[in-house]
Specification:
The structure is a homodimer.
Chain A lengths: L3 E11 L7 H6 L4 E5 L4 H4 L2 H8 L4 E5 L8 H15 L3 E6 L1 H13 L7 H4 L11 E5 L11 E6 L4 E6 L7 E4 L9 H19 L6 H23 L4 H14 L14 H13 L3 H16 L5 H12 L7 H18 L16 H11 L11 H10 L2
Parallel strand pairs in A: 1-8, 2-3, 2-4, 4-5, 5-8
Antiparallel strand pairs in A: 6-7
Helix pairs in contact in A: 4-5, 7-8, 7-9, 7-11, 8-9, 8-12, 10-11, 10-14, 11-13, 11-15, 12-13, 14-15
Chain lengths: ~375, ~375
Amino acid sequence: MQNFDYMTPTRLIFGKGVISKLPEVMRGFGKKILLTYGGGSIKKLGLYDKVKELLKDSEIYELSGIQPNPKYDPSVLDGVKISKEKDIDVILAVGGGSVLDCSKAIAAGAKYDGDPWDLISYKVKAKAALPIVDIITLAATGSEYDSGGVISRTETNDKIGYMDPLLYPAVSFLDPTYTFTVSKKQTAAGCADAMNHIMEQYFCEDSTLLNDGFMEAGLKSLMVNARKCLDNPEDYTARAEMMLDCTYGCNAIYSLGNSQSGWPCHGMEHALSAYYDITHGEGLAIITPRWMKHILSEKTIDRFVKYGVNVFGIDCKHDKFDIANKAIDETYKFFESIGIPMHLKEVGIDESRLGEMAHHVAENEGLENAWAPLNEQDILDIFKASL
Amino acid sequence: MQNFDYMTPTRLIFGKGVISKLPEVMRGFGKKILLTYGGGSIKKLGLYDKVKELLKDSEIYELSGIQPNPKYDPSVLDGVKISKEKDIDVILAVGGGSVLDCSKAIAAGAKYDGDPWDLISYKVKAKAALPIVDIITLAATGSEYDSGGVISRTETNDKIGYMDPLLYPAVSFLDPTYTFTVSKKQTAAGCADAMNHIMEQYFCEDSTLLNDGFMEAGLKSLMVNARKCLDNPEDYTARAEMMLDCTYGCNAIYSLGNSQSGWPCHGMEHALSAYYDITHGEGLAIITPRWMKHILSEKTIDRFVKYGVNVFGIDCKHDKFDIANKAIDETYKFFESIGIPMHLKEVGIDESRLGEMAHHVAENEGLENAWAPLNEQDILDIFKASL
């Protein structure tokens, strides 16, 4: 078991109707609010009007149009500009993980005099950040309970994961009813995203009985509840359980004391969505089972056996490679069964840039240090197997 | 799934040798430290000298002699007096849960002008508290990651659980090597305490797949690792896993969104250790299986079946009451197997005051509102069955 230093200072306010606490919460941070959101979905939900009504005594400035795979230019840069010009006290991010990720980069950039990319690229360590409150409308990334965000810079095809303890949200509002209208496509992609967050932590050299139990429960719960959400989008309990499952996904609490895994699927998927702007969760679901097949070996087999037996209930008396291969097949079949396109070609990616992407990943993601190390050829092989 | 509002602001610094961070951590809170501890064990460990050496630039005042089932008079009152007289900045609690529980009451009392019992008895809500840092030397109560403490007042036979969000430790240092010298008796009692914390949350009306998985993993990990610690007290991994298992035990993260259980075994055990000053974990281990037998019914059976199948691996195809009864027997046998005296008579409690204690519990613990409600007669029956 490894040493660790852990704290999550985020307050989770969870459940139906909890938005009524918003005015009291926001009052604690000041009067000038930067309200960040994406397209029209929060308006369709009525959430935009509700927030404006609840905060009518505050001074609200807005940054809208934040896209999935949120962009440095214009979103982060615009948000930093408004924050500085208007002397913003607190950011209120309303939407999914992309809106929140973008808001985290804005929060740091707003308190920095130079180019915000210095922070995101870790050239400079942030010294301060604006506080962030969020209202989550999509169960997926877990950004509401972690200190990171992923930002894309289109001109360089960079998609960078940026983490800093200053960026934990101060308060996350989680009302499962806001996810009732999430499409089947996004519900499935959110499930795959959260499952991959857990798997990235699960497949490592050194774990504990407790962490394994946590993560196996997380994976099983996501599979059961995502199916229920797809069958009945207004199943409150299923939406609520899935929402909390996703919230924990990227928080280190699932793997305190574990050795590092290297997050290889995220490393590879970042290239796919940076080059082709595909849905992150779909990219992960496509890559994950191919990565599993690729790294399966005598060295990694025991974790796969544990995964197969404890997550999919495969009989532990079978041959260990049979268990592992069946577990990988079950992983693939589950993603397929919830409607995820399981080939890169189905999401608009052909073989033309696979080599370029594999090179970019090998240069930038440090996957030679992952639990099962990947070089450029390994990455290319995984991409090809995913076509 | 129930609504909830959750935050744990405690920083966990975990692993071998982490005490080297102590000076840096303490510097953030100020110069005047109240060092609290129990008997001589931290001196035998060398921890007392180490702390004094690391903090030689601070102004340290001491409160020693804090007992198991920590006492309001003299410990809490003395600590409050020193804190006020010396204008203490921060409390450093070194020891087990009792030292930390006592320190929490001191932290609140130090910032209150009246009788600290007003706070502990919830007559007055605390408005402030001193920050607390702890160094844990016993894996058991989880006080290092919760906002509560239990204080005994000898003259009234009161043993009160006192909770306030102000009382989360700011920083908890957890070095498993400090638990190498914990006796077999205390190792077993710590395991029983932590297991009971989980069971109290597990047995409720409404839980989630994720929470059940968390708690089942917690119980299984505690049983496996406690045995390893008893077999080889210097097994670092087992001590480390057990330490973290215990840390989570009393934190709400195991049951976010669950309905309330009422914590009936704690309610009953508080009387036993208030009247007889027995070891808390032993009292819990004695009561728990008798309580289980007492509340087993058509209403509660499904949770017991889940417990039996998922924690003890009992075949789910058996009759459900057979599964439940076997699970309760396994619980009893586990506690017995780690050396816990499983009868009240073995810990010095005879039948003479059972009625008085049952009356005290019925009057003060609100167990008529527990998941499986208990009236005075129920409590007396459970005590008698525990003799």
